[in-house]
Design goal:
By secondary structure, the protein is an alpha/beta fold. It has two domains: 2-209, Alpha-Beta Complex (DHBP synthase), CATH 3.90.870.10; 232-337, no CATH class. Helix content is 32%, strand content 19%. The chain has eleven helices and 16 strands. It has helices spanning 2-14, 36-46, 61-65, 73-82, 116-125, 145-151, 195-201, 241-253, 283-298, 312-316, 323-332; strands spanning 19-21, 28-32, 55-57, 87-92, 107-111, 129-130, 158-159, 172-179, 182-189, 207-209, 232-235, 258-259, 262-263, 274-276, 304-308, 335-337. The strands form three sheets. Strands 7-1-2-6-3-5-4-8-9-10 form a ten-stranded mixed beta sheet, sandwiched between helices. A four-stranded parallel beta sheet has the order 14-15-11-16, with helices on both faces. β1 and β2 form a beta hairpin. The protein is globular, with a radius of gyration of 20 Å. The mean pLDDT is 93. Bound molecules: threonylcarbamoyladenylate and magnesium ion.
Length: 339
């Protein structure tokens, strides 16, 4: 059965049809980097603006080197330790990379994903695959095959089912830059690999982390993203859910219809059927279950989801294992209630 599905995925990609493939982070919607029409269909299927660049997925370090024009020893070291895995490196692009993939930037994002099914597809096709997360623009990323089916209900997209994703949120995006004073790094999107992890891997190199990244260098990092079908609200102080209803309604009503081209889900009246999002106290598990729980709750007849961000583990275990999850959570939220 699985072999037949694998063959079908390879065949459809070869014919220029984007196919959803599992990775260890989230499902991706993949097309060959050398098929411009297939790349264009990815943007169309996702309803994604062309200013948001795609990640090029490779099946080896050698293939990664073929899509960049500069491969510093720091990239080699990171690749040897973290790949295949949830780390994306942004480096100067090779001239043959279609500028639709990079949204006209001079850099390209590259990652070697860790999932046997994705690897089999790459090994068979022998050309890197551009793949954004397999969701409509602005929506919650899919971590199970059924999530992708829900996103593309009205489109014909073949989904290669590789089970639930192990990590559950997207890869760390790390930009690597050559400057007069040496190599500079910047995390454009937090993920499983934190700044501390990267510093450890590169401990024998002279590197500098910088935060000053202009918006044009980090497109696709909009304020709202990953939003479920019903409003998701973060409350910093615990209260009874029904006590929050009017406050949530009024605050959401005053938001614009869309922010950075992402539609904000509205309420018609103060929500009556509200539910609380409860996550594991282990950051790895909480990260794995976050998107999936958001989807499940928004499909269960509720009108609003609330997360109380005051539990003990957050106050006592303030460590970088939570950072990437909280960044996604803030962006998935329509609203953050401070009191
Ligand atoms: O885990 C992941 O990274 C997943 C799986 C499928 O691999 N992919 C993913 O792709 O999250 P996507 O398209 O949803 O997010 C990729 C983000 C873009 O929104 C953009 O912010 C950043 O990566 N990016 C891509 N190319 C870039 C570039 N040349 N310069 C700066 N940022 C870039
Ligand atoms: Mg995405």
């Amino acid at each position: 059965m699985f072999q037949t599905d694998l063959k079908r995925a390879i065949n459809e990609i070869s014919l220029g049809k984007p196919v959803a493939l599992p990775t260890e982070t989230v499902y991706g919607l993949a097309a060959r980097i050398d098929q411009a029409e297939a790349i264009e269909s990815i943007f169309k299927l996702k309803q994604r603006p062309f200013f948001d660049p795609l990640i090029v997925h490779v099946g080896s370090i050698e293939q990664a080197r073929s899509v960049v024009s500069w491969w510093p020893p720091e990239a080699q070291e990171l690749a040897e330790v973290a790949w295949p895995g949830p780390l994306t490196m942004v480096l100067p692009k090779a001239s043959h990379i279609n500028s639709m993939i990079t949204s006209g930037l001079e850099s390209v994002a590259v990652r070697w994903p860790k999932h046997p099914a994705f690897q089999s597809v790459l090994d068979s096709i022998k050309v890197p695959l551009a793949a954004p997360s397999a969701n409509k623009f602005g929506h919650t990323s899919p971590t199970e095959a059924s999530h992708v089916h829900d996103e593309f209900k009205n489109d014909s997209v073949f989904v290669l089912d590789g089970g639930p994703c192990e990590i559950g949120i997207e890869s760390t995006v790390l930009k690597i830059m050559k400057t007069d004073s040496g190599t500079e790094l910047a995390i454009l999107r937090p993920g499983h690999y934190s700044e501390i992890d990267i510093k450890k891997i590169l401990s024998s190199y002279k590197i500098k982390f910088t935060n000053v990244i202009e918006a044009k260098e980090s497109p696709g990092q909009m304020k709202h993203h990953y939003m479920p079908a019903i409003p998701f609200v973060i409350a910093l102080k615990r209260k009874e859910l029904d006590q929050l209803s009017v406050q949530i309604f009024e605050n959401i009503s005053s938001l614009p219809a869309e922010i950075d081209q992402v539609k904000i889900v509205k309420l018609l009246a103060p929500p009556k059927k509200m539910t609380e999002l409860i996550l594991s106290t282990d950051p790895r598990l909480a990260t794995r279950e976050f998107y999936s729980k958001l989807r499940k709750l928004s499909d269960s007849g509720y009108e609003c989801i609330v997360y109380f961000k005051e539990s003990n583990q957050i106050l006592t275990e303030k460590n970088d294992a939570w950072d990437a999850l909280y960044e996604r959570m803030d962006k998935a939220a329509s609203l953050i209630l401070k009191d």
